[in-house]
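debug: dumping io for the single-chain case to check the tokenizer round-trip. Nothing else runs in this session.
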Amino acid sequence: MSSPVLSDSGFTHLLSFYCPLPAEVCPETERMRERTLQWAQRFDLGQGDAQRTRMLALNSSVFSAHMYPHATGELGQALSDYGAWAWIPNDLTGSGRPVGDILVALGRWESIMCFPDSSPESASPEDFDLLDLPLREVFARLRDLMTAVQWERFRSEQQLWLYQMAREAALLERGVTLSVNDYLVMRIGAAGGFAASGYIDAVEGIELSERQWARRDVRAATGAAVLVGALDNDRYSYYREHNLPVKKQNLFHALLGEHPGDSVEEAVTKAVAIRDRLMSLYLRLREQILQDAPQDLHRYMTGLDLVVSGNINFGMKTARYLLPDSPYTVSRVDKPSDPTPDPLPYPALAWWWNQVRC
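debug: decoded output
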């Protein structure tokens, strides 16, 4: 791996996360890790690579334990198993394979999510076809473990995630550099932001009413929270992705595209400020919503808190990002790098700030 372009102080700033939200860890982590490894080995998720199979299972169990600590029992196990599979389309998107091959695989998996009982398609030599069966098995399990409302929220958000990754793959193949506004719109979906929030009803044992779920302040808070998580992934994955053969989109590239005279250090400073202003907005909306939130909405907001905070802990602990040659570590800080309460200058997000009651 070549030397990173950031200085030590730049990496320290990049990996210092403002997050005053609580964090928890699932009490069944060890059991879920063992069983997810057995499931991943049963379906050979690494496709002949035993170490990759092990890493997929380990990453997923750490992810589930920190982001969804209230997911226990068979539901928690099924979500952990699904998480092991879900790293595969994520890596496929940035693999450099022809975009047509990627779209075929993502489209087939989207159909399986909608129809997990459907018969397998005719056999073909495509290696990713072998990954259809574990997805069918785990989605059939998840459907049986969720209420109809929980299932529809979960399934629809996973399908949206695959669609957004298909868009990202096409942009990568074309070499398109997105504006910051367009990158934020793309990233919130392709990083699995809304997919992550789609777990919450099932994990927290609620069925948020359609009226509560559609409240503009709740949608704005959800958007701000999951975009914080997506941008946090840009930060703690920077070292790992800096020298990959295929350069994935990130906020730093988008900022440098709009400000070509900036250094990478200046782009990092601006990116962290954007993220911290989104975090501050989420905290304001959260406080506002909780003032009169009924029980289910209160538990939904608790789930969002744990997703945001747990995502940082995931970056701290998962072997996917803790590379042996990296001297840098993730830490937390008490204050935002930019406390400005004004809306960010990106039209797609501006309405979120309009939901804050003065």
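debug: round-trip ok. The two ends are 50 Å apart (CA to CA).
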